[in-house]
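Q: Joint fold for the lines below.
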Amino acid sequence: MDQPTVSIKGISKRFGGVRALTDVSFEAAAGEVLGLIGENGAGKSTLVKILTGIHVPDSGTISCAGQACEFSGPQDAAAAGISAIQQEPTMFDELSVAENIFVGAQPRTPNLKRVDWRQMRLEASRLLAEIGVDLDPDLPLRNLSVAERHLVSLARALSTDARLIIFDEPTAALSQSEIQHLYGIIERLREQGKAIIFISHKFDEIFRICDRFVVLRDGSKVGSGRISDTDQAGLIRMMVGRELTEIYPKAEAEIGGTILSVTGFSHPTEFDDISFDLRRGEVLGFYGLVGAGRTELMEAIFGLKTRSAGELSIDGRPISIRSPRQAMAAGLAYVPEDRQRHGGILGFSIGANLSLPILDRLSRWGLLSARREEALANEYGRKIEVKAANWAQKLEELSGGNQQKVVLGKWLATQPRIVILDEPTKGIDVGTKSSVHRLIGDLVRQGLSVIMVSSELEEVLGMADRMVVMSRGKISAILDRGDFSQDAVMAAAAGLKPNAGNRRAS
Amino acid sequence: MMEILARTPRAPLARLVPLRIFRDNSREAILFGLICLMAVAINWRAPEYLAPKNFDNLLYNLSFLAILALGQLPVLLSRGIDLSQASVLALTGMLLALLSQGSPDLPAFAHVALALALGALLGATNGLFIAFLRIPPIIMTLGTMTVYRGLIYLLSGGAWVSSFEMSDAFKSIGAMRIAGLPLTFAIMIVATAGIWYLLSATRSGRNVYAVGGNPVAARLVGISERKVELLVYALSGMAAGLCGYLWTAHFAIAYTQAAEGREFAIVASCVIGGVSIAGGKGTVPGAFLGALFITVIDTSLPFLRISPFMQMAIIGAVILIAVAANAQAERQPGRQILRRSDEQNSGTEISPGDRS
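A: Joint structure:
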């Protein structure tokens, strides 16, 4: 093949004032797996959206098999032979597997142009067999696991005769054996001469499956080459542009006695028999794959979700928490994962957001004191280093990272002793990330205790004093900082039996 | 081969139902059984209920409601709602009645064609505003509900058009019979089959399910949301227009308040039949049975000697209970994060090592 299957030149894209991509160029060649690597927010998803016709680039060109092509919609990209398998496949729960593969392009009978259900089922079975999956094409999609959905979405890509297939972090929600199966499929596709773009920020995967790589950082290409010519440290340097210790400034705080102790927490469907202790001044990391039950557990601890069994004690005294109000009174604060939905009120000012949980402390006889609110905003706004013109600025005008800081600050204003952070840095850029991490460090130095739920292994490895690993609703390992290793954690998260070396009682 | 998780077991009740068509559609089967039970019980209390004279009345009522509900079905499937149907019905009925006054020579079936066209036009107006100006369907159709109703007053000056002012051709369709059954009923059957064909055998129909099920995903596969919206509102209007003519011809009267307040019964028919207000989910048999359910309740209360003053409240309450029961059955069985220990592969169990 002389012509690269797809090549892009000088692609740039802005969203409002934010530069998402700046002058990115690369080529994807047939029979090759190209790793597209970068931190969250580096521009990978924007690039995928441009390649699949969802966004139109501000400048730059895409050419397919040597011919310039312009996409005005997803169907144009599909017609040009580009297809993407999204991280969380966007599909139709109520439709069957077969119809999910062919939706919008169902085979039709020649005369009446009726949807040919028989033909559709046959074709679907054929495509599924091609990728080595045995699924009943009549099953409704809602009965399928995430892994199976990925495969259906791959079958869809093959049905359009795609020449370039993009896998967008396909392994994020898969188990080890499912991931192995996926590697096999990707290798088969490569042998068939498909061009493949594989997006990931897990290095073991990249080295396992990719032939070449392109690294994006802050929307620009910062490196590319053959995967065999580089190593993990090299890739990290390109991805991050700085040393890891800068992003994960581990605070040295004095760790005291047990403050919170959870025993035998259970829920009929979400988690089972969860027991752990949290010590004063400690950052306790909670790691697990998406859907391991961590968020649900935290909601139960904070009184948002009812548990079926389990005890909670603070400072050795059993305590009953049945509502967030009781949890806050007991000195807990919970910063939820989705700050847009649960965390902050976008139409409110920074000051109003900060004062929200403690309005009763700021008011007298039911009237809010503007002076006290102002003082509070001053105190906590400084503490969290929000970049804003003034405290009256609305939350929606701030960047994601600064929004997250305000949400954090709001809970700090309740003067908690235990802070639960659920994915505190999800979807924010590297710079803000490290300042959120510094803030966490400040908290534990002041004697607070932090539970940090994160799906980012590096973050937990870098920030936590101890780590609880959950798998399918159960604790699969509790590790001390000295025992942290990527392998041990990943194995535990996948629910595999750990090596003898990782099983250690204190 | 990947392991298959989270397969939902079939409801035990469904396994007892012998017929395959019902086993795969246990909801419809239960609803159908319930309706039969109700009819038998009512007939036992009041034997004249299923007597030929009233049976006719039941068929007419069923036909009107079913046509409207089946027009509503695609709209609900696409995540929309059409509250203007009753007004379209009344407006179309009034327009045609006035027309028949002016030109009594118009043949019977020309009225049907005109009703369909007029309804489609009124419905497509909803569709245009919703698809292109992105007005929320509930607001748009509440608006046209009022506007169309208002137009009837404008056109008629508030006066009725009664039987003797209508041409014989106009009224003939309302009384015609085919194979011993009302022609109206046969038309309803044809309309039902038409909607069923559209929804299950054409790409456009499948696109309705796709857009309602997941609009983002539908956009990604290149389905035009606008086309779907135009189609479903035009269809819904067409159904209401057709029903408007059949209704006016049957009762031989056109008046300003015709079918006022039927919106609730129409939407409830669909919901009782398992159509999801959130879109993407629902079947033609479901909506049809929902309409049958409501018709049976509607028509039976007088026979059960229930005070006319209480009837409306009872009908409303029964429908709400049915909808609530449905919503309960609808609830997702919950994500199953936790794997029960008997399903666990050996080796998953890891004793928490460090418990300080």
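Q: Anything notable?
A: The radius of gyration of chain A is 25 Å. The longest strand of chain A covers residues 18-28.
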